[in-house]
């Protein structure tokens, strides 16, 4: 109470000073906008239809008010503020907002920006942080708008892994870095499209924002092909009355044609970004006839509409399960999507036949038909796709001798730092046997960690790009195109993992040079990749396993389960590990909005896995004392084949945002000691409709942990009483650092002074 009074007095003082001083008239850096919710007007509006925004005096990061966001029903729901009035193209802006959850939980909140409206909009992430109800967390980052589309730019807060979590926000600010942050495109770089002219087309994923200004300059310099990153997906083909409406798409396609770029069509039939009603009504699947009818109508109208403006259509996208157990039985390995369930396992073949028929009728024989999928380096998946394309093409050739129905296989190429180029090679060699062409359709390489790219990460990423392009050149006779999934890191769908060859300033990264001359790059860099093994700590102590989460867990280090093995990224969480003379104790907290345990395979159910090698020999095979322990969201235990699990104990509890699993795993053949090391990993499997869509891990990206313990990370066994990290950790978690009351007071004063200045500035601007 006392603090507040002092603060208010100081505010008046600062206000007085500010009013009599000129406001940043010619300053390079300027605060554009500050919204602290102290006044009636909120400026923020809901993005979706259900969520409620309300000013509240219950809690605030500074001042008396914050903004309460409740009743959300989709991950993308949240408060948004329009900022186009404040944006100058090519200037960098810093954004910051403070957030806190209402209910007891921990989920990721994300600060994002939307550029453009309607079907041509693009969405970019600025920052993602784990947020709880304990303390205010800052979401902050910079963004440069290289183009404004439809006079629409907004900033918003969403929760990618939860549709309903309620939260508060406070002190949103936007600051420009001034003209000093302006950039120019490196037109002196040799265009990749010229380097690869005799090999394959060089493509990129676009929205309208890539067809203007400096983004267009970079796009045109290196590329001769584009794919619409979103606009040509089924969802965008209709208006809200379920009628076809290609108005926004036509604007995009016209711009693409004006620029003389080729267009690769993505996509006709997919289980994502597609209207539900095409196959489902009131939660019930349509009959085979009705669903087929809708699929045919969609294909006919869309294919006719674009005609030969496209050089290819990805007719079906992502129809195969991940890591299918019996690739030869490809029909049984198909993803159980609503299309599959409504129509049957022939829906793919029928989709290709229909597309071919429409093209033939109209004389557009040159348009190629592709099958497109991710995790294309997984040999089981590549093999299942091989059998599928083989059979469908053989069937077609019976009536059409010498002709292909599926002309090409799209290898999406969403790779990561754990990708082994030898597996990519094996898949290409396999597909070659089919006599089809190959398109690399969505290439990017994410780093294991998020945030700033380190020098090592940039190098190992470049190395993988060099290995891939060298491989692509070897197979250039069948590779038709290589398309990057995004122009630069800050606009990638995986922006936080810097996956592309141009950085946030549109400048060439090491990866550009690796792509431009892979052989030279490989000769200069010996290929010895840095190991990115994570090292963590297990605290000492004996927790009580049960419904109540024992306080002692909080003394152990928090391990982030935030590296993704698959292209699609879903549930994640955190783990903590304790040890005593009897057991290793593990607790994993999972954020998972919808629980699905319907698959017959335990690893395809929402579940948590612990990998443990007691001896830390980093052996490449499972020995005594090495184990893989899995528990699904409903508490069912399963184990790796070689795992001794006779006396393990587990408890699963539900949480508002997912579930928590506690394990006690007895030592099998080991006397644990302080300072000792163990091989260790954690995994979260996230399933939807009986199919695993996402795998998040603490350490290993290769996915080989079930048979090869050498890929595990490393844990050190520490003791609570002598470890400084643990007490540091506790301090930071409770938000009680070493800050003296004086420092806090100073911070508050500066914070509120800034708030006042900004509110005033904003008024002046209007
Ligand atoms: C992604 C886009 O990049 C995102 O902007 C969008 O939010 C989700 O879809 N496989 C595909 C692409 O076939 O369509 C996906 O694109 C990435 C994975």
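Q: What amino acid sequence fits the structure above?
A:
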């Amino acid at each position: 109470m006392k603090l507040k009074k002092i603060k208010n007095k100081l505010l008046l003082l600062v206000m007085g000073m500010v009013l009599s001083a000129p406001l940043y008239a010619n300053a390079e850096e300027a605060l554009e906008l500050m919204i602290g919710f102290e006044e009636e007007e909120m400026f923020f509006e809901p993005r979706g239809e259900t969520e409620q925004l309300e000013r509240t005096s219950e809690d605030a990061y500074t001042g008396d008010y914050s903004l309460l966001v409740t009743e959300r029903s989709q991950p993308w729901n949240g408060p948004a503020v329009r900022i186009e009035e404040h944006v100058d193209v090519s200037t960098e802006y810093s954004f910051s907002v403070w957030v806190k959850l209402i209910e007891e939980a921990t989920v990721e909140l994300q600060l994002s920006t939307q550029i453009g409206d309607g079907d041509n909009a693009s969405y970019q992430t600025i920052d993602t942080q784990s947020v709880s109800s304990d303390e205010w967390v800052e979401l902050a980052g910079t963004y440069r708008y290289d183009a404004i589309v439809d006079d629409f730019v907004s900033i918003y807060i969403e929760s990618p892994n939860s549709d309903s979590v309620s939260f508060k926000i406070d002190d949103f600010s936007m600051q420009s870095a001034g003209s000093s942050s302006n950039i120019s495109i490196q037109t002196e770089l040799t265009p990749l499209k010229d380097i690869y002219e005799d090999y394959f087309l060089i493509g990129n994923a676009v929205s309208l924002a890539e067809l203007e200004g400096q983004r267009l300059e970079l796009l045109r310099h290196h590329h001769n092909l584009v794919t619409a990153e979103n606009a040509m997906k089924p969802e965008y083909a209709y208006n809200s009355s379920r009628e076809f409406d290609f108005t926004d798409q036509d604007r995009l396609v016209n711009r693409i044609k004006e620029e003389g770029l080729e267009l690769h069509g993505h996509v006709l039939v997919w289980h994502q970004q597609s209207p539900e009603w095409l196959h489902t009504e009131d939660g019930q699947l349509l009959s085979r006839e009705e669903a087929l009818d809708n699929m045919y109508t969609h294909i006919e109208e869309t294919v006719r509409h674009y005609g030969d403006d496209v050089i290819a259509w990805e007719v079906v996208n992502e129809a195969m399960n991940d890591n299918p157990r019996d690739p030869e039985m490809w029909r049984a390995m198909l993803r159980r999507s609503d299309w599959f369930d409504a129509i049957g396992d022939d829906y793919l073949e029928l989709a290709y036949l229909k597309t071919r028929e429409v093209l033939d009728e109209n004389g557009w024989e040159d348009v190629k038909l592709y099958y497109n999928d991710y995790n294309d380096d997984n040999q089981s998946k590549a093999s299942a796709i091989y059998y599928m394309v083989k059979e469908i093409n053989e069937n077609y050739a019976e009536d059409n001798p010498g002709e292909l129905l599926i002309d090409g296989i799209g290898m999406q190429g969403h790779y990561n730092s754990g990708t082994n180029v030898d597996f990519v090679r094996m898949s290409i060699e396999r597909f070659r046997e089919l006599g089809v062409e190959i398109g690399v359709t969505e290439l990017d390489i994410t780093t294991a960690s998020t945030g700033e790219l380190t020098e090592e990460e940039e190098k190992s990423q470049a190395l993988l790009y060099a290995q891939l392009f060298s491989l692509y050149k070897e197979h250039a006779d069948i590779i038709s195109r290589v398309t990057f999934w995004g122009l630069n890191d800050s606009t990638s769908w995986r922006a936080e993992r810097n996956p592309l060859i141009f950085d946030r300033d549109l400048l060439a990264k090491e990866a550009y040079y690796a792509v431009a001359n892979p052989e030279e790059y490989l000769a200069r860099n010996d290929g010895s990749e840095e190991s990115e093994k994570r090292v963590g700590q297990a605290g000492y102590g004996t927790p009580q396993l049960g419904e109540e989460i024992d306080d002692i867990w909080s003394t152990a280090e928090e391990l982030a389960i935030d590296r993704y093995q698959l292209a699609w990224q879903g549930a994640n969480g955190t783990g903590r590990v304790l040890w005593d003379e009897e057991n290793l104790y593990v607790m994993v907290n999972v954020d998972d909005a919808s629980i699905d345990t319907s698959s017959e395979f335990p690893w395809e159910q929402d579940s948590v896995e612990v990998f443990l090698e007691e001896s830390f020999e980093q052996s490449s095979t499972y020995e005594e004392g090495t184990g893989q322990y899995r528990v699904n969201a409903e508490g069912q235990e399963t184990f790796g084949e070689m795992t001794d699990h006779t006396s393990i104990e587990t408890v699963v509890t539900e949480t508002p945002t997912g579930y928590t699993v506690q394990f006690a795993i007895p030592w099998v053949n080991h006397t644990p000691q302080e300072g000792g090391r163990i091989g260790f990993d954690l995994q979260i499997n996230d399933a939807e409709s009986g199919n695993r869509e996402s795998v998040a891990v603490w350490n290993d990206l290769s996915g080989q942990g079930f048979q090869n313990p050498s890929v595990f990370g490393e844990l050190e066994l520490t003791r609570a009483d002598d470890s400084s990290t643990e007490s540091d950790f506790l301090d930071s978690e409770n938000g009680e650092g070493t800050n003296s009351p004086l420092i806090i007071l100073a911070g508050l004063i500066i914070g509120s002074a800034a708030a006042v200045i900004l509110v005033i500035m904003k008024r002046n601007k209007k």
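Q: And what stands out in the fold?
A: The longest strand covers residues 677-688.
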